[in-house]
Design goal:
The complex is a heterodimer. Chain A has five helices and five strands; from the N terminus they run H-E-E-H-H-H-H-E-E-E. By secondary structure, chain A is of the alpha+beta class. Chain A has one domain (about 5-135): PAS domain (Beta-Lactamase), CATH 3.30.450.20. Chain A has a five-stranded antiparallel β-sheet with strand order 2-1-5-4-3, with helices on both faces. In chain A, a hairpin with a 4-residue loop joins strand 1 (about 25) and strand 2 (about 30-35). Chain B is of the alpha/beta class. Chain B has one domain: Ribonuclease Z/Hydroxyacylglutathione hydrolase-like (Metallo-beta-lactamase, Chain A), CATH 3.60.15.10. Chain B has eight helices and 15 strands. Chain B has helices at about 45-55, 55-60, 75, 105-110, 195, 210-215, 225-235, 250-265, and strands at about 1-5, 30, 40, 65, 90-95, 125-130, 135-140, 145-150, 155-165, 165-170, 200-205, 240, 275, 280-285, 290. In chain B, the strands form two sheets. An eight-stranded mixed β-sheet of chain B has the order 6-5-4-3-2-1-14-15. Chain B has a seven-stranded mixed β-sheet with strand order 7-8-9-10-11-12-13, with helices on one face. Classes of the chains: A alpha+beta, B alpha/beta.
Chain lengths: ~130, ~290
């Protein structure tokens, strides 16, 4: 069995599972720990299909992407930079769904900091549908 | 390891003719370790009778360790009536959860101070030491203690006490199934799992029936189905269901006990493995099984 997850990550995962807003949970090291059904619908793959993914694997699969089309590494993502400083972040990214289509999303990332320090981050995101969202 | 239940009622003391058998005192469990030293789990109103039972020698010969899971009133309310507190020369070490609100001493001092109490902590003739226990492992006498946060409202710890090959997991206030079905979660995603896994004895919250829980989701306590589910997943040698709702009379708990045993067996457990805690209950926790003393 893996090491017991910190309580704050357990509660964050259970919260995401209860939301209809797309959301995902990453560990302090960038591993993708969970995403909910709404996120799965946006990404075109359920969490049950992917399971936990390393930072390299999920950023390669889903993005976000630079303007030149290359996937950003986890450490390059502006949200990561903020989270490393225990700061929240809001911004827009381009992601890629399972069938290859790219779409723009707005995302808010909140660091999760427990008694033992930073545990990870919760990221809520939604598609940028039209000009009204810009 | 010897165990005695001094209080197993949740939320508020519930004395009266309808609760004499299971008891109305709130959470307090006494552990006697292999070297005869004692640990006290929680300081609900049951700690008052525990304190009265201690002889002066036991109070003075070595520090008394009190492990608080959290500072809700039903888990600390008896503390000011704990006789060793007023015994000059007594040393009492109080363990509890950390909080951004302030040190444990200050937070507990909100109760042992005016206007809630006629005395202040500093006036007590005993020597009190406060230690914050989050995510710690430490030794008390022959016992290895492990604390970890568990899902309850506010900073709350569960404890695992290991003495040789005997272990007791104490999680009296716990809502492991909040927002998630336990059967759908991997072990590492279940609050309290590591504390309880393979323990000789698991003492766990079972405040609500499944029907009652519907109106109490998020209150931090456990329905029967989740208590049994958690116990089956963590596979302790024995289970003591704890923190009885103050509205649950002796007759109600007798019926609940029968239901619990039936459901436990349906889950693959043995009937002798599980019981509802009651005041004055004594157990000898040996290896993988707790044996009833009386």
């Amino acid at each position: 069995m893996s090491v017991q997850k910190p309580l704050e990550l357990i509660l964050a995962r259970n919260l995401l599972a209860s939301l209809t807003t797309p959301g995902l949970l990453v560990s302090d090291g960038g591993e993708l720990l969970f995403y909910n059904e709404a996120a799965g619908a946006l990404l075109g793959r359920s969490f049950e299909e992917t399971a936990e993914m390393s930072a390299v694997d999920w950023t390669s699969a889903f993005g976000p992407f630079r303007e030149d089309g290359a996937a950003m590494s986890y450490e390059e993502i502006p949200a990561t930079v903020a989270l490393r400083r225990n700061r929240p972040f809001h911004g827009r990214f381009e992601i890629r769904a399972a069938r290859g289509e790219h779409r723009e999303v707005a995302a808010s990332a909140i660091p999760i900091v427990g008694q033992r320090g930073s545990s990870g981050a919760i990221v809520i995101f939604w598609p940028v549908e039209d000009a009204g969202d810009r | 390891m010897q165990l005695k239940v001094w209080g197993c009622r949740g939320s508020i003391p519930a004395p009266g003719p309808e609760t004499t058998r299971y008891g109305g005192n709130t959470s307090c469990v006494e552990l006697t370790l292999s070297d005869s030293s004692k640990l006290i789990l929680d300081a609900g109103t049951g700690i008052r009778n525990l304190g009265l039972s201690l002889d002066r020698g036991a109070i003075l010969e070595q520090p008394i360790h009190v492990l608080l899971t959290h500072l809700h009133l039903d888990h600390i309310q008896g503390f000011m009536f704990f006789a060793p507190l007023f015994t000059p020369g007594a040393e009492i070490v109080i363990w509890g959860p950390a909080s951004p609100q302030g040190p444990l001493c200050d937070r507990l001092g909100r109760y042992i101070s005016a206007p809630l109490a006629p005395v202040e902590v500093r006036e007590l003739p005993s020597t009190l030491t406060f230690r914050e226990a989050d995510a710690l492992e430490w030794q008390i006498g022959p016992a290895r203690i492990r604390a970890a946060p568990v899902n309850h409202r506010g900073p709350t710890l569960g404890y695992r006490i290991e003495d040789g090959d005997v272990s007791v997991a104490y999680i009296p206030d716990h809502e492991p199934g909040l927002g998630a079905r336990l059967c759908e979660q991997d072990d590492e995603w279940i609050s309290g799992f590591e504390l309880a896994r393979d323990a000789s004895l698991l003492i766990h919250d079972c405040q609500y029936t499944d029907d009652e829980y519907v109106a109490h989701v998020g209150w931090g306590h456990c329905p029967v189905s989740d208590a049994l589910g958690f116990a089956r997943r963590t596979d302790p040698g024995s289970v003591l269901l704890f923190h009885h709702d103050p509205l649950h009379s002796d007759e109600f708990l007798d019926a609940l006990r029968d239901d619990v045993i039936e459901r436990w067996c349906e889950l693959g457990g043995r009937p002798e493995q599980i019981e509802l805690a009651r005041e004055t209950r004594e157990l000898t926790v040996v290896g993988a099984r707790a044996e009833a003393s009386r």
